[in-house]
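We emphasize that the prediction below concerns an isolated chain of 262 residues; any contacts that depend on oligomerization or on bound cofactors are therefore not represented. The input was used exactly as deposited, without trimming of termini.
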Amino acid sequence: MTDIRGTEIFARYAYAPNQLGYCGPSESTALREGSPEQVWSAARRFSGAWPYLRVMAEMTGIADPLDHRLVESYWLGGGLGAQLDTEEFTAALLAVIAPLAGHYWAHLTADLAAEAAPNHCFHVFGVYPWSRLLGRGMDEHPIHVLDSCRIGWGTVLRRDGDDLSILGRGLVWDQEALRLSEPSPRHARIDGFDAAPRVRTGDQVAVHWGRLCDRLTSAQVYDLAASTERQLLLTNRRLRRESATAPGAGAGNVEEMGGGFH
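Result of the prediction step, given as a token string:
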């Protein structure tokens, strides 16, 4: 039986990158207007998120990869995913995604277990190659992708139609490490997919690629903030180790990376 709540959560978070053409099936109407069964079918075509959910389902013994407990844990961190064995999860995930990623993603090895987690933040900073382009003189685009692709959060300052002003933290690269900025107003849009139609000033919300995903509880904000800070800590540790690596080693160029492996 399809978990309706799980399919709703998946659609809310996956809609923005899908609508922008970065991942998933080319037709985004299933996520925006489809039945739970149609969302489930579309989710299987996300080459990044679906392997995580499938592996998490297998490791927890949950039949439906779109069970709401798994979906929430994937997008926000914490929850069931945080209880899984990291090395076992990494091995199972790489068995699925490494053949799909292409020969130029040479960093997809068991070494990733040192920073792996069953959540989207790890996928953005650890699996995607973008963090490996930092410090090579072309930082603006990688930082934009990393900041947009991670799930951000903040507090609604005001709403004007489909435009929101949110007090949130951005991603900063200071030539030595990644960190989150001090809170400041950031723009977000509902963009025709109103995940939280009654959102109002003071609500805590999640944002993906500049689009509103959902209203968050304080516990969900805690999980998301904790998983993000953990990933930044481990990513920075790796970047320090790799600082002496020759430019271009282990990562493809910007043209090769594209945006579809999400």
